[in-house]
Amino acid sequence: MPLPQHLRDESDFDQLPHNIPISATIADIEEKKGFIVYFMFVMEVKTKGGSKYLIYRRYSEFFNLHQILESKYSPENPEKPGPNTCMLPSLPGKVFIGNKKEIAESRIPELNTYMKRLLGLPTWLLLDEAIRMFFYQTDKDSEHQPRALRRLRPPTRKVKTVKPKMDLFSSPRAEAMFDFRGNGKAELNLKKGEVIFLLQRVNSDWLEGTVNNQTGIFPQSFVKIIKPLPESESEGEGGGHTYSCLRCFLLTPSGVSTRDVCVQEDLTIQPKYKDLLSRMRSVFKEDDIALNYRDHEGDLIRILDDEDVLLMIKESRGQQGKVKRPVNQFPWELHATMASDLSVYNTEA
Fold it and tell me: Span 123-134, mean pLDDT?
């Protein structure tokens, strides 16, 4: 294998372990849906020993790695670098406004350049634990089912997608009786009269199906079942995605608005405060809201950070068994109030 240009010292290179990464290229991006929607970069990593594997990283992980390396190796005076310092490549900055997919796409060439220059630094830096762990293929990475990654396809390869023909008389299906506008990309938008092909039952109130080449979930109360799902699939044994349901309330002086938000996270997850706040703002179309939960006495407790989220989850575990909920519903509920309203709502929702 020819030596990469950055490995100029052959003796240093020979002493490196075979599992040291020497190149990494972003092959694609993958959308992840849950309490928030975000994109992960799918990267092919090559090691000194010649092995190749895929890893999945968010931009925030690039940012955290860069901060660690800066604290360790950036010289205080760039014009007078020390023996254990070096000039790190520039990482593209954070972007807070815009289409998330377009932002992720635009970052691919910049991040590829960043990784090329990072792995082109002196060989001793490649042994840094932060770099090795960033490019290490974890069990979670290896469990991913890779798609036909566009940047790993040979340039002459032509991919032809053949859509299976729908048997209109045998497929489980339903007709939309009302218009329905979904909250987030996990939920379908329906128009009255449309026929939805059913994939599986999410819970007693929600179904998953496909219409207009879009797949998502929708409330059963908005449709009329033409042909039901087979019994095994209607019980959640169809092998598709499973969803967890979070009941949330928006409490205002004029009344209470209740929503069930379906996400793909497991019921045991401990979500981040900022993810919950972002999702509630999207669900209720309100930016000026605060998050709360009810304690065992029925009082609202304000949530301000990740530690408060953990307290909420701990509180809900202590009340399990006292309140009956569907098996796929989170044991905790969110109560959103207007952030500018300091009054306390102690009436049971």
Answer: 88
